[in-house]
Design brief:
Layout: E1 4-5, E2 10-13, E3 16-20, E4 30-32, H1 36-49, E5 53-57, H2 63-72, E6 76-81, H3 88-96, E7 103-107, H4 114-125, E8 130-135, H5 141-151, E9 155-164, H6 168-177, H7 201-209, H8 215-227, E10 232-237, E11 241-246
Parallel strand pairs: 3-4, 5-6, 5-8, 6-7, 8-9
Antiparallel strand pairs: 1-2, 2-3, 9-11, 10-11
């Protein structure tokens, strides 16, 4: 389903008004924490893939969940969010669209807790394979990798796993090194209170997240694509997301680990 744009950041899908904004959603306007180019890319992906079973991590203000649900009209969709509070405007939109049975939202879910994700997916999907996963959740390396290693084996061969905002730390660090250029905004869930005057963003990010950059996961995926035939069939990378298409090689559903599918002998990733 196409979006009808009424301005640089405003659009409508199936009669529901959206804004590209980090503001809270209201009953009259659902906010999507994605820039306009990423909204366009998402809609193109949905049109090309026609996913029937979707899993999303990161409900946030509810706009992205509603966008996926309205544009794809999946048979089953599971959306998970770390915050415990339900997004009431999203519930109302899903009810009006007749999607409350097909779209299940779980709150208070940490994407990094491997043991917690399995039962949620089992309950909603049973043995059915996933067509599309969209991760716009923590934007943190350990949690995002844990989620990927848990959910990727449930993706059907040919299915797509999307990781958004993979390079936010790198983009910010580059912006600090070049203060004459516009500074990109970090995902609000990844780091809070980024000081405008920060000069050593690397130290700031490490102090606030305790993690290495999420970009390391993208480099791991590149090495898996290169070293392990059939695990990953295709990688598409731009400044907004990484799109991973699963190959036909079997993977261990109970113990899948990216590190088992590449060798970083020269220390490109800086990990043991």
């Amino acid at each position: 389903m196409d979006a009808i744009w009424s301005g640089p950041t405003r659009f409508t899908i199936d009669g529901v008004d959206f804004a590209c904004s980090f503001a809270p959603s209201t009953d009259d306007l659902l906010c999507v924490r994605k820039p306009k180019p990423l909204v366009h890319s998402t809609l193109r992906l949905l049109a090309a893939e026609e996913p029937r079973r979707i899993v999303e991590f990161g409900i946030a203000s509810g706009g992205s969940t509603a966008l996926l649900a309205l544009a794809a009209r999946p048979e089953r969709m599971v959306a998970c969010e770390l915050a415990p509070e339900r997004v009431v405007p999203l519930d109302r939109v899903l009810a009006r669209a007749g999607l409350t049975e097909s779209v299940v939202c779980h709150y208070g879910v940490d994407q990094g807790e491997r043991d917690g994700l399995g039962p949620i997916l089992d309950d909603a999907l049973g043995d059915a394979a996933i067509d599309l996963v969209v991760d716009d959740a923590s934007h943190r390396l350990v949690e995002t990798r844990a989620c990927f290693e848990t959910v990727f084996p449930r993706l059907r061969p040919g299915g797509v796993y999307v990781i958004e905002d993979w390079c936010w730390q790198s983009r910010l660090a580059h912006a600090v090194a070049h203060p004459d250029r516009p500074r990109p905004t970090p995902p609000d869930s990844a780091v809070e209170g980024t000081a405008a005057g920060t000069t050593d963003l690397g130290d700031y990010v490490r102090a606030n997240t305790g993690l290495r950059p999420l970009a390391a996961l993208t480099l791991e995926l590149v090495l898996v694509r290169a070293c392990s035939d059939g695990v990953i069939d295709e990688l598409v990378i731009d400044e907004h997301w990484v799109v991973v298409r699963r190959g036909r090689a079997p993977v261990d559903a109970d113990g899948f680990a990216l590190a088992d599918h590449y060798t970083d002998r020269d220390g490109l990733l800086g990990v043991p």
